[in-house]
Amino acid sequence: MQRITNNVCDKVVKLAENETEQVVENFRRRNQTLGLNKNSPVKLQMDGTYQSVHIKSRHKMGQNASQAIGIACENETDNHDIIGFHLVNKLCWVGAWLRGKGYDVECPNHEYCTANTNRYDPLSEKDLGYEIGKKMAKLDLLVDYCTTDGDAKSVQGLQEAMQEIFDPLWSVNRLADTIHRGQSQFREVLRAKFSVGMFPGATKAQRNDIKIAFANDLKLRSHGIMKSLFAKYNGDRQQISKCLPRIVKSVVNCYSGNCSDTCRWSITLCNGGIKTSWWNKSINLSSHGLQNGSLKPNKTDKLLIESLLEMKLSQTALNQMQFFSNTNKCESVNRTISTYLPKNKNFSRNAIGRASAAVLKVNNNRDVALAKTLKAVGCGLGRKSRAVVALKKIRKHEIYDCAYQKSLRVKFNRLKARKKQAINFLLNKRVRKRLSGYKKHQLEPKLCQNASPKEFVPQPGCSFWPD
Questions:
Q1: What is the C-alpha R_g of the chain?
Q2: pLDDT at 376
Q3: Which of 134, 142, 219, 437 is paired with 457 by a 20 to 30 Å CA distance?
Q4: Do 312 and 223 form a contact (C-beta atoms < 8 A)?
Q5: pLDDT per residue over 206-231, tens digit each?
Q6: Domain of life, per the record (predicted)?
Q7: How would you list the strands of the sheet with 42-50, edge to edge?
Q8: Which stretch of DSSP H or E encloses residue 176?
Q9: What is the model's pLDDT at position 358?
Q10: Which residues are within 8 A (CB) of 156 and not within 5 positions of it... i.e. 6 or more apart?
């Protein structure tokens, strides 16, 4: 299988490059159909994945990963096709073998080298964005907006490539990912220092559980409000910005226990009443037994809740999330790549071929990608062969399952099951006593509190204490 992969690797890479070029041509035809210039700029979403679960290592200096893949998907259509990708590879078994024999060899400057960067260079998403930008520039494709998560500089590298080839004054605007912004909002709620009487509970552990539920609820509610506003006003940011201050005040009043008057006349996902209120619809609040008035925020807590909501419901946040876009497609591609390039194995020579096969699968689905790959290597399938019939059947089941999972009935049942599971977990947690006796580092040797490391005094219960 390794020899077969070596033989077809170059053909699969070339086929994937042709596919991305075809996607760009489809964009140009789409722009002409809409009456636009065929070379109009496009909107992208970008993300990177590393060949390692952890970025740092306990066993070697520097980063743990030896490979990184940058993915760029278009944000113009609902398909979100991949239009650019780049692999940075440090692995070269030939160079490692020669260095082990005593030869002064450095990758990637020797014959039969599979690495494309030095093994001491850090992996950077900025470099991935730069390389992807150069590939797009060769296809005369401009980018004006790019959505990324909060810890990446790929837009900066993309902009440098555009300025180097097209226009020194060209600017690529970075947009915030709505999903990652919600995760940041969740973390900030956990870090926030609310008053002692804000959350109900007899113990600190119970109040902390309710705080985590409140953080999840605030994150989901902010996302639902912004999504409803974009749907109601069709993405008109001027209309949305006028509603945001009133909505934030209404949500703060709702969490304070006064939602009967303000929630009915603004988009807060709460209609007041009993059964139609947010307290009844929310999984996180209702599963913990919280009702209208259970939270007791003071003036400082209300200001803190307002600032946390403004992370997503403010004019500044709206400017950073202009099109309410995310990087979900890139995250999906990363999971597909992990099936072709498992993180517990190293593929030095065929990594680019495996990544290209994953790109083909995402852009063409399983059946079409397999047919194109076999045709490219000279093993085409017959129109009525059993393999084609089986692939069509698999694709039919995939389409049905996708539509089934997105149906309203299935979504409602899923939420209902999640609520029931949360309630059962909390009941079991309160009733069941902890019998495990777990305590962190309880069997490790300890130092005396008042002793220096040189004056080590064994403590009773540690492994150095004599019998």
A1: 28
A2: 86
A3: 437
A4: yes
A5: 889 899 999 999 999 999 999 999 99
A6: Eukaryota
A7: 82-89, 67-74, 42-50, 143-148, 173-176
A8: strand 173-176
A9: 93
A10: 126, 129
